[in-house]
Amino acid sequence: MKVVVIGCTHAGIAAVKQILKYYPEADVTVYERQANISYLSCATYLHIKGTVRALSDAQYQDPQDFIKRGVDLQLNHDVIRIDAHAHTLLVQDLKTKDKTSTTYDKLIMATGSITAIPAIPGVENPKVLLCKTYSQANNICEYSAPNQKVAIIGGGYVGIELAEGYIDSGHEVLLIQQPHDLLDQYVEPVIADKITKVLTDKGVQVLTDTRVTGFKDTDDGKLLLSSEAGDLKVDIAAISAGIIPQTELLQGQVAMTANGAIITDDYMQSSDPDILAAGDSAVSHYNPTKTVTYAPLVSHAIRQGALAGINVFERRLRTIGTQITTGMQMFDYTVACTGLTMSRTRQAQLNATSVTYTAPYRPDFMPNAYPITVVLIYDRNTRKVLGAQLMCEHDVSQAANTVSALMQNGGTIDQLAMLDTLFSPNFNDTFNYLNLAAQKAVEQEHGYLRT
C-alpha cells in the first residue's frame, strides 16, 4: 500500500514517523516544495536577538534519517494537481521543471499554511518581508542591519516576538495592530494592556487601532509606510498578520470550511475516506465549544500529524480535541493562555463571565515574589472552566497546561478551587494562584455547589 504525504511540515514529519512505526511495510513517498524541512519558525526572533546561533539549529529532523529508513523523500517537488477520484497526482520537480504523474492508495495532506498577505498597495515591495518559512527567515535576518527602523504589521504572537527580537538587537521598532488590543485573539484587555506597557517600556512604539494603507520607496532608499496614524518612514517592514491554509489542491474534492481548512473526523480523515489531513491545512476539534475551528499551531500540527499517521490504514486512535493552549516568553514575562476569551464566549452564545486575580505568585516574604495576573473564564450555567490567561515575571507556563487538562475533563470552578496542588514557598502560596482565582469565581457565584 502506497502512502503519499504532501508537505514535509511539522504535521507531515509527525505522520511519517508514526507510519514507519505502525506500518513498516508501507511504501511512503513525501513531496515537499521547499529545500529544507522541520524549521521551527519561532526561532526567527530568537536568532535576531542572538539566543539561537543559527537558523539551521532550529531544524529538528534530518532528511537523511527518513531516507535511510526507506522513505522516498522528494524535496524541491511541488504537487500541482490532485485527482482524488482517480487517486493520482501531478508532481513537478522545481529544479528541472519536469512533470510526472503518480498514484496513491492513501494521501495525507500536510501542506501547511501561508502568511495572509493583506491587500495593501505596495505590499510587493522587496523591503516588505515575510517570516514564516526557513527561506523567509533567512531573508528577514539578512536584510536587517543594526540601528535600522523596523515596522512589524500584526500584533499577535509572531509580531510581539519579532518586536522583542529587534529591540534586543538594537533596532528601532514600530508595532502596528489593526484591532484595539495586542494578542486580541488570546487575552483579555487587562492582560493586553500589561503586554503593551512592557513593550513600550522596552522601547517599542505600539500603534493599535491602526490600519496600514500603503508602502512605497522614498528618494533616500527608505520605505514609506502609510497608515491611519500618518506616514511613517522605516527601513523594512515585516508582515505577521495571520495565516491561511494551503489546500487549493483539494478545492471541491473534500469538505472544507469557508477559509479552506479541511474538515476532518476524530481520526483525521477527510470526507474522502482515502485522504487524511493534519496541521495547518486542517481544522481542530475545539472542546470548549464542541465545534471545529482553525488553530494553526505547531503543538496541534504534531499531534494531528501523529494521529494521521497512526490512523492512515486503521482507525486506531481518536483525537481528544484541543483547548488551544498557547504561551510565550516576552522579555522577562511569561504569557500563557488556554480556552476561550470573553469575546469568543459571546460569539458562542455562552452565559460566561470572568474573574481577575492579581497577587504575588508566592509568599511575599520570599525574594522576587512577582505579581501574577490570572483571568479565569467560566460558564455560569454549568460552572465549567472555559478559559484562563496568566501573566507573570515568573515562569507560570505550566499553569495553563494544568487548566487545559482540567478543561479537557470538564472541570468546574469548584474543582479548580480545591484542586490538589503542592505547597512550597519556593513555588507558590499555601493555595496555588489557580486555586485562589477559582475561589474568587466561586465567591462571585455565591459559594460552592452542594455535592
Description:
There is one protein chain. By secondary structure, the chain is of the alpha/beta class. 24% of the residues lie in helices and 28% in strands. The strands form seven sheets. The protein has a five-stranded parallel sheet with strand order 3-2-1-7-18. It has a five-stranded parallel sheet with strand order 9-16-10-11-12. Helix 1 runs parallel beside helix 7. The chain starts with a strand and ends in a 7-residue tail after the last helix. The mean pLDDT is 95.
| Number of continuous helical runs | 11
The secondary-structure class comes to alpha/beta
Give the % helix: 10-25%
Number of strands: 25
Mean pLDDT across all residues, rounded? 95
Low-confidence stretches: none
State the end-to-end distance: 54 Å
- Side-by-side strand order of the widest sheet: 3-2-1-7-18
**Rg from Cα:** 23 Å
Strand content: 25-35%
Assembly state of the chains shown:
single chain
Can you summarize the main beta sheet?
5 strands, parallel
